[in-house]
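Issue 218. Parser rejects a valid record. Input:
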Amino acid sequence: MFYPFRVGMNRSKSDKWPRYEPTRHVLIKRSFRNDRPWQGLVIDWKQDKQRWSALVVYMDESADGSPLMQQWVPIDRLRPCHPDPNPPRDEFL
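Output the parser choked on:
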């Protein structure tokens, strides 16, 4: 069969997904410094006077059964995560 363009099994370098904007993935600082942060997803934002908070959904790994939690978290406890939808070729396989 003849194709008017080059056909191959490998992804081309120009075959990329656009970056996610705005990011809604966050890390939530826990109460103790050495505790691993929770991974969360921001659902909504609100502002009380001069302070911002985010409604975040996360898995509480410290509780039995890892329940799904939803709570308002002050912005100073959050750190944005920027997921890359285009991993390097070695990590893709």
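Fixed in the parser; the record now loads. The chain has one helix and five strands.
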